[in-house]
Design a protein that fits this description.
- This protein has one domain (5-133): Hypothetical upf0131 protein ytfp.
- It contains four helices and five strands.
- 27% of the residues lie in helices and 37% in strands.
- It has 140 residues and is an alpha+beta fold.
- The longest helix has 15 residues, at 117-131.
Length: 140
């Protein structure tokens, strides 16, 4: 299994990723072609869905340990499915990584347009950290 995880929403913030994983994995920017990112109705976090013409910018974390995958799966919950994808690094090289894709049966919850990263940084992150149930599902 790849020890890499591509993140495109709340987990792009190193402090959130460290809290979920239980440690601070190394990260760098990456792009995921063939997907688009959308706001999830009523939530501060986004989801991605396949789109041949899309691309999603995010963070690629390396060295994810087996125990962290269990915590990440619990954090993401049943609306997401972990899938192996191929991401592009800034130098053009490609790597396989796992990411969490919104399950088809929940796609009616996706709103149009891209998720607003700056709005999350400004307001959503604080709300997310205060209320998101996924944090409480993780064994500390």
């Amino acid at each position: 299994m790849s020890g890499r995880c591509f993140t495109y929403g709340s987990l792009m913030w190193a402090d959130i990723m460290a809290r979920v994983c239980g440690y601070n994995p190394d990260s760098r920017p990456a792009t995921l072609p063939g997907y688009t990112r959308h706001p999830v109705r009523g939530e501060d976090y986004p989801a991605i869905a396949p789109d041949d013409n899309g691309e999603v910018h995010g963070q690629l974390y390396a060295g994810i340990q087996a125990s962290a995958w269990e915590r990440l799966d619990a954090f993401e919950g049943n609306q997401y499915e972990r899938q192996l994808v191929n991401v592009v690094l800034p130098d053009g090289s490609r790597l396989d990584a796992w990411t969490y894709v919104f399950r088809p049966q929940y796609r009616s919850l996706l709103q149009t347009g891209d998720w607003d990263v700056e709005a999350f940084r400004r307001d959503g992150k604080r709300r997310f950290e205060a209320r998101y149930l996924g944090f409480r599902q993780i064994q500390q």
